[in-house]
# Entry
Amino acid sequence: KLGGGPAAKAGGVGAVRDAALAEALEGARTRALAQAAMVLGEATSPDDLTRLIEKAAESAGAPIWCVYPKGKTSPLPEATVRAAMHAAGYVDTKVASVSEAMTAARFSPRA
# Structure
């Protein structure tokens, strides 16, 4: 769903705690953000989101997949994710369900 794979590596930021996401990323993750086709990070707090945005600057303008908890009781609501990403100069381009607990939103640098 996220578009990553052996030919399109996801530059990982931080740990992946969601089992379904870890399984989907097996063999498709790299720490070399400058060569990554996309940047992917699991954010469960505002601090995680800030770190993801800061680390994404190491990529060559790759889109960012922000994976965050679903639901009304999420410690990182969708509105917070979108506001932070928009303030950092990104626009949201796609949303995908990751697991029962997590969702993902893709953001691309504003042209």
Notes: The helical segments are 19-25, 46-56, 78-87. The beta strands are 10-13, 29-30, 38-42, 64-69, 90-97, 102-109.
